[in-house]
Amino acid sequence: MCGIAGWLAFGQDLSYQRDVLERMTLTMANRGPDAGGLWIDGPVGLGHRRLSIIDLEGGRQPMLGRQGGKLAATITYSGEVYNFRELRNELRSRGHQFETDSDTEVVLRAYLEWGVAFTEQLNGMYAFAIWDARSQALHLVRDRMGVKPLYYYPTADGVIFGSEPKALLANPLVPRTVGASGLREIFEMVKTPGHAIFEGMHEVLPGEFITVDRNGLKRHRYWQLEAREHTDDLQQTIAHTRDLLEDIVDRQIVADVPLCSLLSGGLDSSIITALASKKLLAAGKENIRSFSLDFVDHGGGFTGDAVRGTPDAPFVKDLVEKIRSTHGEILLDSREMADPQLRTSIIRALDLPPAFWGDMWPSLYRLFEEVRRHSTVALSGESADEVFGGYRWFHDPDAIGAQTFPWLTSVTGKYFDGKPLFSRGLMDKLSMSEFLGDSYQQALAEVPVLPGESATDVRMRQMTYVNLTRFVQTLLDRKDRMSMAVGLEVRVPFCDHRLVEYAFNIPWAMKAFDGREKSILRAATRDLLPASISDRVKSPYPSTQDPAYEAALRSDLAAIMADTHAPVRALLDAGQVKDTLARPLGSNSPMYDRMGMELAVGLNAWLNEYDVNLSL
What we know:
There is one protein chain. The protein is an alpha/beta fold. The chain folds into 2 domains: 2-221, Aminohydrolase, N-terminal nucleophile (Ntn) domain (Glutamine Phosphoribosylpyrophosphate, subunit 1, domain 1, 4-Layer Sandwich), CATH 3.60.20; 234-534, HUPs (Rossmann fold), CATH 3.40.50.620. It is 39% helix and 18% strand. The chain contains 22 helices and 19 strands. A 6-stranded antiparallel sheet has the order 2-3-1-9-8-11. It has a 6-stranded antiparallel sheet with strand order 4-5-6-7-12-13. Strands 16-15-14-17-18 form a 5-stranded parallel sheet, sandwiched between helices. It is globular and about 75 Å long.
């Protein structure tokens, strides 16, 4: 995996802006710690930082493609195309010659062969820019599910772009201004597609192809979810799901560096780990290395709650014993999760304040940091719940009937609300209820349906669509930023577009045929797993229960209220904060107390660290 940055300015010779382009590229050093490159040609400059995964010696970037001895196109590329070997064979049959074994060169030659239609050929997670020297046009491309990020800032004579906002912010033309629309995205767990927090900045949509030339900027969606008739019966659906998973994992275990899996003991990560183990052993290779996460016990055992009913460790043990993976348990000290230096590292990785279950950000950061000591590539079970209907809100009548995003309803909604500690005046100014309603209606208007579909299938298609286009984007973004901050590539097999397309069109009665969550997925993989895991109820990513974490949050919030120069102080409701801090530690206080504290403390650190100008 890598980091990219670049600038197109038709009114300039960017050779005079090399220092700016170097600064932009250097911000991506964590995403690409192994090598860097910068290419400038008149009005365009492309920067690259490389994390070497395929063809360690070749594949240096930016990479130039020639036709007839002349420069035709240049690429700066981030990601992995998993079908690059098949594409390379196809391109060779069409007369193309290759100088490296990298997938980057395959993508570049594919563009030279098929033009803008080349995206139809790609299977993978990627975000890249191609400068076509013949047409004097820059193309920005993002993978279908948005696994890899790509941001851009249009200018009067071109565009500035990068893998993360920090690359753009390193250019003096990009302001550090955040307005009401940006704050709304921070306060509500709803990621508006294409929206970036900073004013004037945008995110390339999943499955989008943007072209910038002297005529301006044009956008094109080369992929999006479509409603199609599902003609397979139940047994065929189960079998095809298994076939897809077998092929996906087979493609995604390809790497020239150490590979591992992230194993929680849940259904999804266990499936990926078991399949990877099976494929590697069949190929005569070493068994998969797996890693799990837990918190050091400070005197209290696990206590279930409304969201998380069981601990992970026993289930992890069951799978490891079955597949004989080389396993490592990573234990985290929950007291460290509120450490200010760690919070600063996370904010620098995110370019945003960490919000919503804020302790997950530092725990993921530390998990990935430790995994990176042993492996460069990790497989994750993320996104299966969105694809196959695993969350409890898919099965909760109140959530299904609610006219809002399902994760903001029923038992889970309170876990995603940090607004009560902020002033009523601010909330009124931001019109949060109107924003939430408009966002939801915008999402529903996009949902494709088939003529004659039952009301149940239409509703469950809507539920699935908003999860795949809104909710999962927040999780993929969290995974990408925390892993790339430490130079770890995390692959998400359940985001393969073929599997997503197929599952999206399975009728709900079939998708939940046994009355359980993820029925098709369970049936397709039962032979791979211990019964304890196949039958396990969904349990989310672990959150620390140690009161020391909440105590640290309280201390940080109290310090903010005592500091008249703290930028977030003016946004808070002093009375609500006082009441929260007065409650006994560990009392049965609302969950949003902790959410509000995490959001307030993180927002304050971000405003300070990034010197943000709030424009309200």
